[in-house]
Design goal:
Layout lengths: L1 H17 L32 H11 L4 H8 L4 H6 L6 E3 L4 E4 L8 E14 L5 E3 L3 E10 L5 E5 L5 E3 H7 E9 L6 E9 L6 H11 L18 E2 L4 E2 L5 E6 L7 H15 L7 E5 L2 E2 L6 E2 L10 H4 L8 E4 L2 E4 L9 H4 L4 E6 L5 E8 L2 E8 L5 E7 L6 E2 L11 E6 L3 E7 L5 E6 L10 E6 L5 E6 L2 E10 L2 E9 L2 H4 L3 E8 L2 E6 L6 E5 L5 E3 L11 E3 L6 E5 L2 E5 L7 E2 L9 E3 L3
Parallel strand pairs: 1-7, 12-13
Antiparallel strand pairs: 1-3, 2-3, 3-4, 3-5, 5-6, 8-9, 10-12, 11-12, 13-14, 13-15, 16-17, 16-38, 18-19, 19-20, 20-21, 22-23, 23-24, 24-25, 26-27, 27-28, 28-29, 30-31, 31-32, 32-33, 34-35, 35-36, 36-37
């Protein structure tokens, strides 16, 4: 009877708990509320395993980050577990080894050598940072009181094989504004997957923290510096994902509120298909609309500013003239007639202006002006000038007013248009880039915040930093060095954070490279011959390349390359606006 009475009491208690209302006003949540919970005991390692298997199993146990990596800590001594630093992981190749050292093993202690190859690491901002080279890390193990091997001195930090990283972390894309607040720019990061229900909250926390380290001086946030979570980002009873913020900033104008909504909606649209609801202190941020989809914020995100006009089909430079990619016919004006002996060219995003590099008496000159008209000669003489590239304009149908080129491989010049219509050359600070070698290719992203470069045949990415009148390329990093090496020929922007790269490598003639450097995809090799000397890419456009046999196009990485009806010489250059 006592047991029956106790059971009834428990059921009554549970019924009372179920009646607690769930729609009460949420309370602000800050870092002080995130108290560490008691870590449950993780499963013990297998009995009587040898030191080398112990270390290998320990590395593989890092796939479970639950309870502060309790599964991995189970392989350590208590003292080692207390001292172990679990900062963001270093990603290594999946084929790592655990081998003996030259030291003779002892009865109670031994040193195991963990060795492999670096791929990269996650920074404090959860962005991927490429890292190259081999590593060897000594790992000391000792027998415990039960005569089982345990790690007494683990390697500092987490070493996570790529295969485990791929299943443990998820790539997410945050969005921040360019300094003019005219366009949103992607900023990729990585978040731990388990538990998946917490991913929206983790994305919100990273968004609140601001732009990543590499673009901290390039991008800006509509969220004020004191912004915090008012509550976790969770799905509401009606199915909308609620992002509830507090301290977002003072004097919030309607325009600033729209910018916050666009930034939040774009950043979270990659992790949910639900409607997004943006709240400030529990109240909707804009009175005229409650829920949003990505299409609702396209105007504030500046998508029209980046979109290419459907009539702009691209161009080709061949035999000293600029031609249409539509039919191969020369364009109107002196650039099309061959009067300038054009070696490369670039069309502004709106299509109204053209910049060409022309050959004159063994020297290179830059000419800029209106499409199909006489082009002004810029006061800039060089032995080599890279293919020009246009900076983002101020409005969707506004002509470009700034074009860049690399001069003699050792400097970068931006040419700006003054109010009287003249074009003036100004220097770009490339102190951070100069040590890497000669610049042969330079392409500004169409949002104007990043630059992709080919330096000594290697692929680099850098951030465009503007400080009043001073413009610099900062935070350069080499992308996919172990595969692309120094074989890169040409580059172009497929989207804001993806490049298409051509090379002289038979097995990698054309690739899609993500700007954080973690991932690359290979286009089909069919029909192409190396070196692939020129590539053109743009959103909603076919990728165009020129190899020794002519002009080819493909829509996706799985497509077989199709030959163009336009006949071009092997050294021709193909380009889209930008």
């Amino acid at each position: 009877m006592k047991r029956l009475a106790m059971l009834v009491l428990v059921l009554v208690t549970l019924a009372g708990c179920a009646a607690i209302p769930t729609n009460t006003q949420p309370k602000p949540i800050g870092s002080k509320d995130n108290k560490a919970s008691n870590t449950p005991t993780a499963p013990e390692p297998r009995q009587n395993i040898d030191p080398f298997t112990l270390v290998r199993d320990f590395i593989e146990a890092t796939s479970n980050p639950d309870n502060n990596y309790a599964s991995a800590r189970a392989f350590m001594t208590e003292d080692a577990s207390r001292k172990w630093d679990t900062k963001n992981p270093t990603i290594i190749e999946t084929g790592f080894s655990t081998v003996p050292t030259s030291q003779a093993p002892q009865d109670k202690t031994q040193t195991v050598l963990l060795q492999g190859k670096y791929l990269g690491r996650l920074g404090s901002d959860n962005a991927f940072v490429p890292q190259l080279g081999d590593f060897q890390k000594p790992v000391k193990v000792e027998r415990n009181s039960e005569n089982q091997w345990r790690i007494s001195e683990p390697p500092a930090g987490i070493y996570m094989p790529q295969g485990i990283f791929n299943t443990t972390y998820r790539r997410i894309t945050l969005y921040f504004y360019n300094p003019e607040f005219t366009v949103l720019v992607p900023d990729p990061r990585y978040v731990v997957i388990p538990p998946a229900t917490s991913i929206p909250t983790r994305v919100t926390e990273l968004l609140i923290a601001g732009p990543g380290d590499a673009v901290r001086d390039t991008l800006v946030s509509a969220l004020g510096p004191d912004t915090d979570k008012f509550s976790d980002t969770l799905e509401s009873d009606d199915g909308a994902l609620e992002v509830n913020l507090t301290n977002v900033g003072k004097d919030l104008t309607p325009e600033k509120r729209k910018q916050i909504v666009a930034q939040v909606v774009k950043s979270l649209s990659g992790v949910t298909s639900s409607r997004l609801r943006v709240l400030v202190d529990g109240q909707q941020i804009l009175p005229d609309q409650r829920d949003y989809r990505p299409s609702d914020v396209s105007a504030t995100a500046g998508e029209a500013l980046l979109a290419l006009n459907a009539n702009l089909q691209g161009m080709i430079v061949a035999d000293g003239s600029v031609r249409s990619l539509t039919d191969g016919a020369p364009i109107k004006g002196p650039a099309g007639t061959g009067a300038y002996s054009v070696t490369s060219a670039a069309q502004s995003l709106d299509g109204s202006r053209l910049a060409v590099v022309s050959r004159a008496g063994g020297r290179m000159r830059l000419r800029v002006g209106e499409l199909e008209q006489e082009l002004s000669e810029v006061d800039l003489v060089a032995t080599t000038l890279s293919r020009p590239t246009w900076q983002l304009s101020s409005g969707p149908k506004e002509p470009g007013t700034e074009v860049w080129t690399a001069v003699d491989g050792t400097s970068v010049t931006r040419v700006t248009r003054s109010d009287n219509g003249s074009w003036t050359a100004k220097g770009v600070n490339i102190t951070d880039i100069l040590p890497f070698g000669s610049i042969s290719e330079l392409r500004l992203s169409r949002d104007g915040t990043r630059a992709a470069l080919v330096i000594a045949g290697k692929l680099y990415i850098a951030s465009v930093v503007r400080d009043n009148q001073d413009v610099a390329l900062r935070s350069p990093r080499q992308l996919q060095p172990s595969i692309l090496g120094s074989a890169v020929q040409s580059i172009d922007w497929l989207s804001q954070d993806v490049l298409v790269v051509s090379s002289s490598l038979p097995s990698w003639p054309v690739t899609k490279v993500y700007t954080d450097g973690y991932k690359m995809d290979r286009y089909s090799q069919s029909n192409l011959n190396v070196p692939v000397g020129s590539v053109a890419a743009a959103p909603a456009r076919q990728v165009q390349v020129v190899d020794p046999s002519g002009l080819w196009s493909a829509s996706d990485i799985t497509d077989v390359w199709r030959s163009s009806g336009i006949r071009v010489p092997a050294g021709a250059l193909v380009f889209y606006p930008g």
